[in-house]
Recover the amino acids of this structure.
């Protein structure tokens, strides 16, 4: 498809259509329209993707308009399907009005920047009454296609109009209205410059196509209506047209209308901010602009914090996010950033064991410092002994010692990384340095990952408080690089050493002792059940990560109990994707085409210990999939404990067999859990399908 191919053609337009009573019916109707025009390979696949997007948030907007949209592998070319309905359908608009104008924005998975910019123009056009009035007045599909093309691809009509195409009259009228609107906008901008009030901001939505640019258009139009300058940076899926830094510097207030983290948030540091979801701007942009105007002279107004750029995990500094949700998300950020350290360090240690033997821990430091590739260790020396090295080779002992030492160094960053990125999640970039420092302090006082977690949280809150202070302009540049790291590290470091260190160390030791006490007999089996349930409850979410953190943090103890816990966690986490892959193979008819496609790759994710491979299945049918995966995970966790399976590697699944004690028991436990989950999924989905069959026949 070339850049001159129209997004909309008459074959994509349905006028005065009766698509059905519900929005799902309308989506199905438009998907068939797009497919029949040769723009999609599968109407059912496109409809399923659009319905899945609709389920995340309604796409109705005030004024009787709806814009269901999605990216889909079934779309062959970027397209706009359009239906003008005889009877409006509820798409969840904030004003409660049923939609009679419905666009389906169908973008391929790899839609290029050019087409995304065209879709952005459509989204902005839908906020203009002249455009929507022309759509309601159009008498033919050809006229609708011209009206829309005039908005998104006006250059395609220039040649036709130059040759005397009289059918472009309505489109030209719309173009004239658009030009008038632009003139009014210019006048508004001039008035704004005279008034001197400038508001800037950012809009974004999960898909980055429709609501992102509708919100931007609505806010800018509301600014024109009030005679002020409002400039919004739409952070959509395509190329981002960044705001002029000089305009940001001049701005009096900021509006963030977003469902994704704001990229480059630090550019707006210190300015009064109104922070809301993107639909709030689409539904009532005027009130947001009024709030921003009121915040300019309000000393109590929320302000954009220093730091927290595009890598920041905090997307709610305006206070719209509940503190508990913010804390949970920040802890998850810390765990997510910590896992690469664990995976790299743990797997290198496991490889060190493979080459140097498990007793390499005793002599690795001496071997690395006293040997080289040209001076291999003397294995007869007590200080350099590695009797279990692979093949009894001095080279294998040296390689094993190097790998173990590197892995051990990486694992040393486990607690500092956790603390540093928890603080980062709460305060943005200024929280990283004090957070890492608190992690190092936690290690020094033997409080382990609990101390790192507490230290990171305190450091994050202190850094966020300092970043939120309204300081003179000359000091703002020093805040994120000097004042915040220095002040936070000093205050929180003193608190950790002088007050919290010993109590947290006692708590960590008590937890470790309790863990050791459960490592034998029936208690170990119960612990395996609990860990298996946690690993399969949310498949990579907070509960899953808590169990994984618990297991990996204990590996440093190098005890049989810690290895058994790691094995239980890893084996249980492998069950969900393996079981869902098996279920799609055994009972294909119980799953959608998209689920069957996911099932073809889920087995490899399962073998690699990537629990997230089962998320698409759980998201589509949580009431049947999640209980089934939890049952299988509990069986696997219990069996690994009962069979005494241990893992010295924190990740890798079956590909780290060399680091797993009783590998046969490991495989048997996984197979048992996979069978249980597969059987339950097939049974529950089969019962559901059977219960729906009579209703379908009756219909």
């Amino acid at each position: 498809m070339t850049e001159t191919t129209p997004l909309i053609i008459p074959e994509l337009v349905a006028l005065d259509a009766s698509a059905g009573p519900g929005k799902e019916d309308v989506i199905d109707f438009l998907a068939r329209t797009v497919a029949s025009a040769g723009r999609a390979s599968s109407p059912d696949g496109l409809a399923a993707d659009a319905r899945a997007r609709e389920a995340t948030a309604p796409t109705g907007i005030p004024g009787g308009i709806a814009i269901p949209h999605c990216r889909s592998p079934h779309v062959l070319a970027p397209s706009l399907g359009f239906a003008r309905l005889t009877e409006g359908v509820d798409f969840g608009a904030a004003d409660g009005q049923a939609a009679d104008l419905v666009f389906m924005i169908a973008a391929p998975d790899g839609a290029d920047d050019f087409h995304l910019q065209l879709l952005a123009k459509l989204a902005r056009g839908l906020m203009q009454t002249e455009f929507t009035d022309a759509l309601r007045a159009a008498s033919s599909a050809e006229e609708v296609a011209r009206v829309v093309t005039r908005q998104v691809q006006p250059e395609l009509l220039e040649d036709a109009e130059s040759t005397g195409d009289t059918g472009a009259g309505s489109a030209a009228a719309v173009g004239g209205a658009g030009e008038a609107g632009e003139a009014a906008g210019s006048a508004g901008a001039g008035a704004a410059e005279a008034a001197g009030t400038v508001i800037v901001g950012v809009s974004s939505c999960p898909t980055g196509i429709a609501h992102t640019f509708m919100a931007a258009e609505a806010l800018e139009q509301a600014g024109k209506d009030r005679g002020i300058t409002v400039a919004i940076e739409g952070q959509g899926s395509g190329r981002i047209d960044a705001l002029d830094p000089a305009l940001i510097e001049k701005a009096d207030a900021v509006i963030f209308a977003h469902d994704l983290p704001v990229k480059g948030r630090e550019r707006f540091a210190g300015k009064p901010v109104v922070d809301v979801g993107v639909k709030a701007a689409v539904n009532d942009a005027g009130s947001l602009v009024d709030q921003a105007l009121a915040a300019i002279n309000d000393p109590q107004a929320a302000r954009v914090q220093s730091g927290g750029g595009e890598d920041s995990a905090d997307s709610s500094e305006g206070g719209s996010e509940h503190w508990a949700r913010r804390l949970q998300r920040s802890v998850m950020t810390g765990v997510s950033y910590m896992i690469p350290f664990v995976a790299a360090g743990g797997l290198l240690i496991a490889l060190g064991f493979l080459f140097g033997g498990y007793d390499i821990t005793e002599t690795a430091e001496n071997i690395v410092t006293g040997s080289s590739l040209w001076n291999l260790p003397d294995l007869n020396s007590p200080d350099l002994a590695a009797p279990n090295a692979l093949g009894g080779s001095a080279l294998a002992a040296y390689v094993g010692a190097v790998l173990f030492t590197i892995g051990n160094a990486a694992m040393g960053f486990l607690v500092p990384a956790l603390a540093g990125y928890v603080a980062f999640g709460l305060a943005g970039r200024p929280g990283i340095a004090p957070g890492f420092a608190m992690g190092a302090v936690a290690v020094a006082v033997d409080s382990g990952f609990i101390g790192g977690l507490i230290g990171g949280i305190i450091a994050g809150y202190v850094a966020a408080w300092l970043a939120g202070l309204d300081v003179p302009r000359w000091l703002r540049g020093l805040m994120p690089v000097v004042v915040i790291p220095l002040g936070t590290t000093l205050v929180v470091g003193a608190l950790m050493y002088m007050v919290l260190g010993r109590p947290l160390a006692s708590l960590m030791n008590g937890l470790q002792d309790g863990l050791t006490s459960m490592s034998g007999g029936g208690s170990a089996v119960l612990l395996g059940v609990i860990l298996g349930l946690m690993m399969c409850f949310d498949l990579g979410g907070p509960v899953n990560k808590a169990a994984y953190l618990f297991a990996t943090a204990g590996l440093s103890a190098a005890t049989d109990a810690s290895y058994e816990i790691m094995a239980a966690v890893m084996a249980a986490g492998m069950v969900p994707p393996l079981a869902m892959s098996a279920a799609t193979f055994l009972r294909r008819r119980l799953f959608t085409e998209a689920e069957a496609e996911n099932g073809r790759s889920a087995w490899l994710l399962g073998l690699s210990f990537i629990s997230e491979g089962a998320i698409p299945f759980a998201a589509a049918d949580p009431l049947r999939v999640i209980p089934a995966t939890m049952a299988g995970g509990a069986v696997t966790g219990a069996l690994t404990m009962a069979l005494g399976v241990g893992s010295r590697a924190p990740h890798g699944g079956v590909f780290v067999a060399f680091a797993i004690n009783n590998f046969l028991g490991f495989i048997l436990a996984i197979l048992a859990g996979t069978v249980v989950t597969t059987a339950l999924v097939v049974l529950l989905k089969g019962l559901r399908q059977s219960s729906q069959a009579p209703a379908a026949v009756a219909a």
In short: The two ends are 42 Å apart (CA to CA). The domain at 10-109+121-166 is CATH 3.40.930.10 (Mannitol-specific EII; Chain A). Confidence is low (pLDDT under 50) at residues 165-195, 307-320, 695-699.
